[in-house]
Amino acid sequence: MFLIFKTKTFLIVLAVIVALIGGSFVYLQFRPYTPPWSCTEPTDTVETPTPTESKYIRWAQFDLTNALLTQAYNYDVKSYGEENHLDWIDLLSYSVAKNYGNVTKASDRKKVGQYIDECAERLKKGEKIEDMAADLKYFPFYNEVYRAILSEFVGENRQGDTVRYGLKVFSPVAKNWSYSHHNDFGSVREYGFKRKHLGNDLMGSVGTPIIAVESGVIEAMGWNQYGGWRVGIRSADGKRYYYYAHLRKDHPFNNKFKEGDPVQAGDVIGYLGRSGYSTKEGVNNIETPHLHFGLQLIFDESQKEGNNQIWIDVYHIVELLKKNRSAVVLDSETKDWNRVEAI
Predict the structure, then answer these.
(1) For 15-19, 99-103, 225-229, 306-310, which range has the lowest pLDDT when averaged over its residues?
(2) Do 259 and 145 belong together in one domain?
(3) 120 to each of 60, 78, 154, how far by Cα in Å?
């Protein structure tokens, strides 16, 4: 009798376990899912494009400080036109790879800075970067990542009859307009669901003109529950997606642009505000006026809206771009601000 009772109990427990596992399986299989780090509108279903290549970078981070970026940048600019022109991306890739990817500690940053100087001196003497980096296992990785981020940052700029070599990209905030920011990448956000903050918040006055950092095409322009009125711009090579969110409630965008239009680096694309955190369009639920500025890397198109999104810390990039801010002027008829060069 005891044996029969024990067997029945075992079978009941087993049936409950199977039911729970089966229910969980069905839940996992059919529950609509939106990646919690996505900066696009949540939808009932997410269609992830099939990767076009079996091998592409699925993870990257950007820990380089403004000081290191400026150090390498100065070597590049000062050597422009010389026989041995120094590529700042090669300098950065070599130095970080030589330090085994360690950049977060002050002591590591000091070493990376020393390696930048060392690399520059060797290149000036005629050595080739491919020979110098031959034994650095992760040089190709860092070089690909840093080129995906920085490849269009430096080059020739023509202004009238003058050709200037230096930064081709601009600060996301117009010249002579004040803002403040700190490194808030990875901090917690809880509206809708608990998630990491994947951008940099630039605090400023409502109506501050917002600038296209890099040339590209407007891929998104409109309302997003989380970002409010926002603009998304894809770079010409498709590897960078710039995200500008929480724009002004009324007149959020420059009226000269619409989704699908090309923009030039330095163009005014919209105006700082505090819109967002609402399913209803045109609502100000952000307490402090600011621009949320984000940068997504895309090595394969499946990453754009999929589960392998790569958003990098842009705080030090914003610091670097203080060197190049776009001057703007108000058009009294349209009430839009436009870059001075375009008037």
Answers:
(1) 15-19
(2) no
(3) 25, 11, 17
Same domain, 208 and 314: yes
**Residues 153 and 269 reside in one and the same domain:** no
What average pLDDT does this structure show over 249-257? 97
DSSP codes of every residue in 117-145: HHHHHHHHTT--HHHHTTT-TTHHHHHHH
Segments forming the whole domain that contains residue 104: 66-167
β-sheet bridge partners, residue 232: 220, 243
What backbone torsions phi and psi does residue 166 show, to the nearest 5 degrees? 165, -145
Which of these, 275, 323, 333, lies nearest to 67 by C-alpha position? Answer: 323
C-beta of residue 210 within 8 angstroms of C-beta of residue 269: yes
Domain match, 311 and 196 both = yes
pLDDT for the residue 183:
85
Of 199, 207, 208, the residue nearest 232 (C-alpha) = 199
Which among 207, 338, 231, 339 has a CA at the least distance from the CA of 293? 231
Q: Is residue 60, in this structure, part of any structural domain at all? A: no
Using the 8-state DSSP alphabet, how is residue 303 labeled? G
Does residue 248 sit in the same domain as residue 114? no
Could you give the percent of the chain with pLDDT greater than 90? 73
**DSSP alpha helices (H): ranges in the chain?**
2-30, 66-78, 88-98, 106-124, 129-132, 139-150, 315-320
Q: What confidence category does residue 193 fall into, taking pLDDT thresholds of 50, 70 and 90? A: low
- Is residue 249 within 8 A of residue 229, CB to CB? The reply is yes
